[in-house]
Amino acid sequence: KDTFELENALGSAEAEEALKEAGVLKANGKYEFTSDPTELKGNNVVVATEKDVVIDADGTLKLTAEETAIKAVGKDVTISAKNTIVTGQIGVDADDAKVNIDGSVNIEAGKGIAVANGGMVTIDNAVITSSIAAINAVGGEVNIAKGNVTGAINATNGAVVNLGSTVWTGNNTGAGADITLSDNASWTGNNTG
């Protein structure tokens, strides 16, 4: 197991040198983690504001944040891992940016996924547990192919939320959005928006 205590978020210029020295940031610009599991801890853990961030992990990648685990503002984040375990006040925040996570994703956060300003989050297999909102979408798009979503979905401003074959337990607290579930999905909750 490898644990990285990040003083500055992965993706920031300040963190680049230390991650190069640790052999994690490769010449091709990708962050590659070979230990299983690898844990990254910090205030904000992965931040894409200056350039796109690409992370490859051989096994389980744990992103443990005090605030936001993955924050993409104007730049994109792509994560490929067998399992990605995300904890923080906000799990994934995409503001005018795309976040794609391959593999199984487990998000435990106050707000699981937040999108704004045309942001887009795409996850193949997600388990989201939230205390405030599983998905908070002010415009933008969230695509989850399958999994379990526990918590409210607050989608407004023409947001598009595709839940595929997901089991969703929670209220629909937004209005003016398009939430789609496939035939083999289920929803237990109320429209309160």
Fill in the keyword field for this structure.
single chain, 193 residues, mainly beta, 16-stranded parallel beta sheet, 5% helix
A few lines on this structure:
The protein is mainly beta. It contains 1 helix and 16 strands.
Describe the protein:
By secondary structure, the chain is mainly β. The protein contains one helix and 16 strands. The chain has a 16-stranded parallel β-sheet that branches. The longest helix has 9 residues. It is elongated. The termini are far apart. The mean pLDDT is 96.
Beta-strand fraction estimate: over 45%
Strand tally = 16
The biggest sheet, with number of strands, parallel, antiparallel or mixed sense and barrel status, is: 16 strands, parallel
| Helix-strand makeup class | mainly beta
Number of helices: 1
Estimated radius of gyration? 16 Å
Overall geometry comes to elongated
Helical residue percent band: under 10%
**What is the CA–CA distance across the termini?**
44 Å
Mean pLDDT: 96
Low-confidence sequence ranges: none
Order of helices and strands: EHEEEEEEEEEEEEEEE
